[in-house]
């Protein structure tokens, strides 16, 4: 069972913050995220997953909402220096980022972390975010879809613009790379024109891991070709089994089977203290979309949560979960201290064995 975790995200900061005195005191303290990243790294989680959006949770600002979260690349670059094994997956939207700087930023993070970077490749519904990018003309949904597809393909092409053995670093002949081993992408498409190669060499893991989020059949067909990990919202086993079967069938059509097939990892909403009978509407909406720890007002046990995760994954044919803690930092500590050891005891998670790349940790 592969596991990612959200150590921070806009929705987590919306309404639940009053329940965590530590979050209230340390929301913008980088040492909080350093501690959580170290805990997750030591516990053996596969990756940190950082959602993002370029707008506050409410407009005009709502004083009851904790609109305080870091830009993902910046935070994960900081956390790369204090971790050794865990993957680092920022969200970057093809609606707002150009492919060349996006590819360069992700690949830089990959080198800084020795091959532990991924990219949550999303497009953004313009909505309120458009107001913060007013110089950009508004686009239709179809234009956003084609722009996203072109951007993902172009980013991958840029990551491969240096051959794996391009760098020779030969001072005697004053040669940094082999002639012909760095290839300009020379891309001229509907949405982008990019000529050059990237400014840094091939990834330590071949290329960064690509995560995509969605659920429709058309999305699953796209993800079967382009994604390494599929993050989706599922809340019942039958639907999850159908989704898993559909994704794997599409992947097989694309020639991706076994270790080359994308990993299906839906969200799992986690709470160490159970759930209040009447949570906020935003919390109820998130919980209603995802598998979650027992819906009780009583505290959860690590053994119970772990057993439930194994049961769901086995029956639905899932590769793992992306865990969405309800309260930060309390539920991440519960995950590391109580749930992960139970998963190892159940044989669902391996015992730690040194450092590796994110791609290797996910068996890709």
From TrEMBL:
GO terms for molecular function: monooxygenase activity; oxidoreductase activity, acting on paired donors, with incorporation or reduction of molecular oxygen. Residues 33-270 form the Luciferase-like domain. Keywords: Flavoprotein, FMN, Monooxygenase, Oxidoreductase. Coiled coil: none annotated. FMN binds at residues 52, 91, 216. InterPro entries: Diverse_substr_monoxygenases, Luciferase-like_dom, Luciferase-like_sf, NTA_MOA. The keyword Phosphoprotein does not apply. Belongs to the NtaA/SnaA/DszA monooxygenase family. This is Luciferase-like domain-containing protein. It comes from Corynebacterium glyciniphilum AJ 3170. The lineage of its organism: Bacteria, Bacillati, Actinomycetota, Actinomycetes, Mycobacteriales.
